[in-house]
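Progress note, project year one: complex with NAP.
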Amino acid sequence: MGKPYAVITGASSGIGAAFAELLAKEGYNLMLTARREERLSKYAKALAGKYGVDVRYIVADLSLEEECFRVAGATEALPVRIFINNAGFGECGSFLDTPIDKELAMTDVNVKAVQIFTKQMLQRFAEAGDGYLLNVASFAGLLPAGPRMAAYYASKAYVTSFTRAVAYDLKEAGSKVYVGALCPGPVNTEFNRVAHSKFSFWGISPKRCVSYAYKQMMRGKTIIIPGLPTRLAASATKLLPLSLTLRIVAKQQMRREYSQQDMG
Ligand SMILES: NC(=O)c1ccc[n+]([C@@H]2O[C@H](COP(=O)([O-])OP(=O)(O)OC[C@H]3O[C@@H](n4cnc5c(N)ncnc54)[C@H](OP(=O)(O)O)[C@@H]3O)[C@@H](O)[C@H]2O)c1
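Model obtained:
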């Protein structure tokens, strides 16, 4: 059998692009996916040249169910060992004002696509006897709710709850297959521009986020929280009354409009 492949969704920027670089460096062949073809093509060439691995890509809109199945199908002939379910986005603002079409597409990408790929890949990994599947959730998914980003926080709470339960099922079945949820706090990517949001805390680099995630994934940790301040915040919120947690989250969740210049 040839060298194993890692599949990364949302590989055209941010955390997904950082995973692509790290996994190529680790010697994995790659299958990348996202909607922006020019980015995928540029990264594929650069990573293949730099690390001497095979890098393929498939352009797909993962808000569409049939596109998720098409991507899963395109990986069937490859010896996939790692799957990073990373594509996702948010939208900031009061629920009365946020656009429903964007929110529904967000639920499709952040929730439905994650569930489709988890099912497809874990069944394959279970048959093969091993494999790693990492769902990129968020610190948001560890909180009870997210005022001013209601649907986004709820989508990430789905991912953490879902992943914990699937990890339990695998353990109970005695499986060696890994599933985990990555729950970062702020990471400096294109997330804010897409979500019309702004961090009230400093973000970590995507490189730091994925290097911590990879190590923890290889150790078999189910819920992965990069950065000590975020780990401390996760513990602290368990002790606070719900009303106070919601007030804090609402206060730090700020909307920001981005200009053409910000969009580069
Ligand atoms: N940045 C943070 O602070 C942070 C914190 C916690 C969790 N996260 C999570 O981390 C993941 C990656 O986000 P990021 O921060 O790296 O943001 P990003 O730089 O905006 O990257 C998002 C990626 O998702 C892809 N994507 C979005 N909609 C898609 C669609 N309909 N079909 C296919 N691909 C789609 C984008 O590719 P195209 O636009 O080319 O399709 C892009 O590659 C997300 O799940 C996000 O919720 C981020």
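Residues 138 and 184 are 5 Å apart (CA to CA).
The mean pLDDT is 94.
No further modelling is planned for this target in the current period.
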